[in-house]
Design goal:
Order of helices and strands: EEEEEEEEEEEEE
Strand content: over 45%
Shape: globular
Helix content: under 10%
């Protein structure tokens, strides 16, 4: 059974940092691209960052570019999202997801097959 478990969410002040982790099991981790998504109250889910399965190429939404960094450790079946200079608008439930070949069409990702349950990030003023 494929599983993705997020951790590291919490409450932080604006300008602070937080590191999210996504632990994967039940599938061949090295064959999957892993992405971070978020959904704020009243807003659509958006793709935050994605890292490819093999070459390590990365994608970042323009809203987080320069502030967030995605990384993966294949030996630990874990993906991380380092979030710096956090803003109140970063407040959301953050999900990690896995797909063999996800594709980006404008602002929407398709092809994520497995999803975690999410972890809440709250950034206060």
């Amino acid at each position: 059974e494929a599983q993705l478990v997020e951790s590291g969410g919490g409450l932080v002040q604006a300008g602070g940092s937080l590191r999210l982790s996504c632990a994967a099991s039940g599938f061949t981790f090295d064959d999957y691209s892993i992405g971070w998504f978020r959904q704020a109250p009243g807003k659509e889910r958006e793709g935050v960052s994605v890292i490819s399965s093999r070459d390590g190429s990365t994608y970042y939404a323009e809203s987080v570019k320069g502030r967030f960094t995605i990384a993966r450790d294949n030996s630990k079946n874990t993906v991380y999202l380092q979030m710096n200079s956090l803003k109140p608008e970063d407040t959301a439930v953050y999900y990690c997801a896995a797909g063999v070949h996800p594709t980006l069409v404008v602002d929407t990702w398709y092809g994520m097959d497995y999803w975690g349950k999410g972890t809440l990030v709250t950034v206060s003023l």
